[in-house]
Amino acid sequence: MSGGFRSRSAGRRDDKPEGNKGQKQGRAQTRHQTRGQGGGRQRYTVKGRPASIGDPAREAAFEVVLRVARDGAFANLTLPGILRERAIAGRDAAFATELAYGTLRSLGVLDAVIAKNSSRELNRIAPEVLAALRLGTYQLLYTRVSDHAAVDTSVRLVEAAGHDKAKGFANGVLRSVGRTPAEEWLRMLAPESEMGALAFTHAHPEWIARSFAKALGDKRGELEVALEADSARPVVHLVARPGEISAEELALSTGGEQGRYSPYAVYLPEGDPGQLDPVRDGLAAVQDEGSQVIARAVTEVPVGDDHGRWLDLCAGPGGKAALMGAIAAIDGATVDAVEVSPHRAELIAKTVRGLPVTVHTADGRDPGLEPGYDRVLVDAPCSGLGALRRRPEARWTKVESDIAELNQLQEELLESAVELAKPGGVVVYSTCSPDVRETRRIVEKQLAKGGVEELDAREWAAGMEDVGDGPSVQMWPHRHGTDAMFYTVLRKTGTLG
Length: 497
What we know:
Low-confidence stretches: 1-42
Shape: globular
Helix content: 40-55%
Number of strands: 12
Distance between the termini: 75 Å
Radius of gyration: 25 Å
Strand content: 5-15%
Mean pLDDT: 90
């Protein structure tokens, strides 16, 4: 089957549904497959990307959307590399970012609209053609780009990718989409249930909207505001490394603004943080302000007879370990950082170089360390529902069953942390998720086992208000400008033997 559609022939690699798994072919191999699907001349360049259409912003966005769908790439890692490689900057870079991230955030809505206007099922459309359709539909529904420009450039992307015979198909789908206003498409295609309609309108799977509603308690009808904020592009947060540079100095040198809560935070409204001198020199790093508040809380809760022996039990990717290590250097303490992945452990070691931090490649459930830590952080692996705005495609790739699979690991890590803490020592449990199954439910199970008491974590929330009823803290993008992070503070009971 030509014309940019997947073959229906049995045994063809193209028959596999498009998604994030099972397609790890190299660029050369992908070029071969595209030639068979395109039904036209092969226009791929030596570097393995479609020929230029003279529109670098749209070309970059197209490649990001394609790589995410075809190769399982992460948009937040892929786009910056493409922009640097092709020297795309200024307004073009901003437009490419808006197109790529906006398209990926809205995938559920876009695919529903495309499916309504397509004569073919989505999994029968070649990935390059579908990527162009998604970009075009996003422009038609969510931007001020003229209908003609949205359609024309998308069709040219289809042609540049070698799918000549799919040009008419793409043109027809997009022109059909453009005949109906976005609000009408949302009304026509939204589920009948109130929750389903709200989730669809704000480009979230319904199960995530339900998770947020339960965490919020929705006492003030906040869910819609929370979903809107979850789709807004976040401001970059920097952390000034204590003992090296102050937040005031960092703000002045970068043109940023000092944070509202963490004394180390700086907000960077625009620009590539990796190009900043303080970041390149190791004086500062990118870190959400919520993460800073949590790491700082670990070091601030009073501990009797503190010997300065601290532990980060789940240290990857290393941001909290680095901040704890910088504070430890000032306080005369040391930090052990545990990471199960050897590769991530190496990255952490680079991040904490020069700080009193020792990295251990081990499983946090049984790290082989001597108990008796004064302070322990358990930043547990979680669903990451609190950071969806930083991973635009993640809301559509995550599934609810992931949470149940993580819960046992979270329980075991917290139990290990309690065992490693000394009597009277502090354990901070945190997640980058507001889902109650990963937050309060895990904490309550540990409390039921005994051996710990829960403190009021709000006392160490750096002045944050509206963080929930307590004693734990729940942050939200729409309330605090941070990711939707959770943490609680436990103290190990008992006495030294």
